[in-house]
Write a structure and sequence with these properties.
single chain, Rossmann fold, 3 domains, eight-stranded mixed sheet, three-stranded antiparallel sheet, binds guanosine-5'-diphosphate, binds magnesium ion
């Protein structure tokens, strides 16, 4: 067994070093905050079985073998099976069996880039009942729970998602909105995005300006401390970093001790303009029991909104907020079904502006 100690500014960076040096099979033996030249950092002790497996990756054959093995994983097989079912279904979906109004609605959804899985489900429902309207069908497929303290009574709320999706901005705007609504609320903004200075500074700035508490989470010890002092706060909003290509949300949450926290809701921040392949990847990467809602951002920059339906159908998660501008004011709204239908069928953003 090969054992090694790694130090870095935060747990993510230390873990990245572990993976780069010891590979995917490394086992974490300890993970704690230590003092290095007077500043806090994360120290991880990791070990890996000393085997020739590591060297296999270096040869061309080794790389090829790994790639082939990974590509026949069950997820891929399952997605191929689903693709084949859809291919078989499509010719059966005869639009002429629908009423003219239902047919128009299906065509509209297709133009909005609603995917085949959702279209097949809609078609089956419409076929069963000639009087059934598209909104009735879609209503059962999309759920919303508006992001506010009355609906989301848990204490910890973490904002996850790809880099640049709008996590930090959504978090700040939702916190300010809640503070305005409940001036006495004790809200804490916490950043676990230590690697990127900008988000941290933004959060600290708004926390100071608006009478909100601010905490930094560099390691699991910091999160444990925040849990201990959580009685001081009514709501704690945590800004998570964009995860590296190989790290999934559950793995990251385990590293920071958040996986075992029973009072944490994770909100996935996404924009409708990602590609279908990216959405599939995100569903895999961010799947977690603690994932509780989707926040849609950059609606003002999107051309179609079908992915909101696609994601709702694939994940079963409710939508909690809609962001439609980069400014601080009038740019985020709690999600309601009405606002989603207005977006999808009228291209009206929650602020009342119509998208071209
Ligand atoms: N147009 C537009 N820009 C947004 C929206 N939400 C965030 N942004 C901008 O997108 C950029 C990245 O946002 P940020 O919150 O830093 O993303 P993060 O990396 O996920 O934390 C910033 O320049 C934001 O001002 C939105 O709804 N519409
Ligand atoms: Mg950020």
């Amino acid at each position: 067994m090969r054992m090694k100690t790694f130090r870095a500014a935060n747990s993510s960076a230390a873990f990245a070093k572990v993976k780069a040096e010891l590979g995917e099979d490394a086992v974490i033996l300890s993970n704690k905050t230590v003092s290095d030249n007077g500043s806090k950092c994360c120290e991880i002790v990791a070990a890996v079985e000393a085997s020739p497996v590591m060297s296999k990756h270096i040869t061309k054959d080794g790389v090829m073998e790994d790639a082939l093995q990974n590509s026949v994983g069950w997820q891929r097989e399952w997605s191929q099976i689903k693709g084949q079912i859809m291919a078989l279904m499509k010719p059966q979906m005869d639009p002429e069996l629908l009423t003219p109004k239902q047919k128009l609605a299906m065509e509209y959804l297709e133009r909005e880039e609603v995917n085949d899985k959702v279209l097949a489900k809609v078609y089956c429902c419409l076929r069963k009942d000639k009087d059934c309207s598209i909104i009735t069908v879609l209503d059962s497929m999309v759920d919303t729970i508006s992001f506010d303290m009355d609906n989301w009574t848990g204490k910890f709320h973490a904002f996850a998602g790809p880099g640049g999706a709008g996590k930090t901005s959504s978090l700040v705007r939702l916190a300010l909105k809640e503070k305005k609504k409940h001036p006495k609320a004790r809200i804490c903004l916490a950043t676990a995005d230590g690697g990127r200075g900008k988000g941290r500074i933004v959060l600290k700035h708004y926390a100071e300006l608006s009478g909100l508490a601010f905490r930094e989470i560099l390691t699991r010890d910091d999160f444990a401390l925040l849990q201990k002092e959580s009685n001081q706060f009514d709501m704690i909003l945590i800004d998570l970093p964009g995860l590296s290509a190989r790290t999934c949300l559950d793995e990251w949450m385990t590293l920071y001790g958040m996986k075992s926290c029973s009072d944490i809701s994770v909100h996935l921040v996404l924009s409708p303009y990602y590609s279908p392949t990216q959405f599939e990847r995100f569903i895999e990467k961010y799947k977690s029991e603690q994932l509780t809602s989707v926040i849609w951002t950059k609606l003002d920059e999107a051309c179609t909104f079908g992915s909101i339906l696609n994601m709702s159908f694939a994940s079963g998660l409710p939508v909690s907020a809609l962001s439609y501008g980069s400014g601080l004011k009038n740019s985020i709204a709690a999600a309601t079904k009405d606002s989603i239908w207005r977006l999808l069928f009228m291209r009206k953003l929650p602020g009342g502006i119509t998208q071209p």
